[in-house]
Structures are given as C-alpha cells and as structure tokens.
C-alpha cells in the first residue's frame, strides 16, 4: 500500500516537472517570437492568413445562396438561388431523392412517393414550419412533374393525407437547373421558386413582425442543407468534368 502511494507520488512529481518543462518551452518560444523583427513577425502572420484563406477558397464550391421572401396577406412567395460546382446528375439525383430528404433537410419528417407514371409522381410530405415558439404542421400532397436534368415542378394535389386534410393552401413550387461554367469546370445554378398559403393563419403580431424573416430563415436552412448534401455526394465520386457549351 505504501509502495503504491510512493509510486503515485513519484509519477505526479515527474509529470509536474514535465508540465513545467513544456510551459518553459512554450515561454521560450513566445520570447523567441517576440524577439523577431516586426517585419518578420508580420510575414509570419501574413503567411498563416494566406494559408487559411487558400484553404477556405479551396472549399468554396458553393456561392452564397440568395434568398428572397415576399408576403401578401397569408400568402408567401419565396425565391432561392445558388451556384454549385457539381455535376448536373448529382444535383438532379439529390433534389429528386424524395424519401431520403428527411435524412438531410431540417423540418422534413417523412416523404412518401405514392405513385409514379413516367415523369409524373404523386408525393406526400410531412414536415413543419417553425415560427418562434410555434410550429405549424406542413402536410402536402403534391403532383410532381420531372423534366430530367432541367426542372422539377410541384403543385397541390387534392386528397387527404393519412386521413387528414393538407395544411397548405394552393402550394406551387419549382426547381430549375442551369449548367454554367464555374471554377474551371461545369457547375449548376439551382433556382427555387415557390408560393404557398398556410391553412391556419399565423397570429397577426407574429406575422407582421416576424413572418418574412422567419420563413426566410427556414428556407435558408433547408436550401443550404440541400446544397451541403449535393456537395457531399459530389465529393464521393469522380468529377465528370465537361464542356459547358
């Protein structure tokens, strides 16, 4: 018992000495850096900043998304756009991967494809719209039309959703894809437009003061999550670099 206590004490002393040695070495490095001429210290900072910027620039495969939200009464019109250095099949495959959307897009809880007929689909979405401390359920039954590698359009489809009525009135939305030159390779411009109205009106005070900013924040979160997933899928496969002509 005594020997174990002595060994523990010896190890603590050795570790403390090592720690002091590390601190001493760190202090010597700080003194050495301080002793450098001002021009040399400036060059060190500039070089580190340049490396950081170069790394960030290398990762910037997506332009900052542009988001707009307009409100007329209880009707919201939204528009989003971003350029991404990705292959158009990857972008298309991500946008139309409906049943996996809940895995990477916030506030989408469940998606089911009820029917497919060529490029026409019937899709049911279960999700939510968060406004401050409130959450409005978003249940949509949509008639979807694909124009492969060009656009995806959707509009409200009559019918109950698991025995419940839809919670959005008159939804219409569209993704449009345009191949563009970007960063020495072909990229894709992703444009999204939608117009919808909640069946249950937002409380007046919340709608007037916060409606547009909060819908904009929700749209930004979902749109950026979609772009992030496109980036992830693009990075997982060889790039199909091609002409943009």
Cα-based radius of gyration, to the nearest Å: 27 Å
Give the distance, in angstroms, between the N- and C-terminal Cα atoms. Answer: 81 Å
Kindly state the mean pLDDT as a whole number? 74
Query: Count the strands?
Result: 8
Helix content: 40-55%
Low-confidence stretches: 1-60, 205-210, 239-245
Overall body shape: globular
- Main sheet? 8 strands, antiparallel
Task: Provide a descriptive summary of the structure in words.
The chain contains 5 helices and 8 strands, in the order H-H-E-E-H-H-E-E-E-E-E-E-H. It has 245 residues and is α+β, with helices and mostly antiparallel strands. A hairpin with a 3-residue loop joins strand 5 (134-147) and strand 6 (151-156). Helix 3 packs across helix 5 (204-235). The model is unreliable at 1-60, 205-210 and 239-245 (pLDDT under 50).
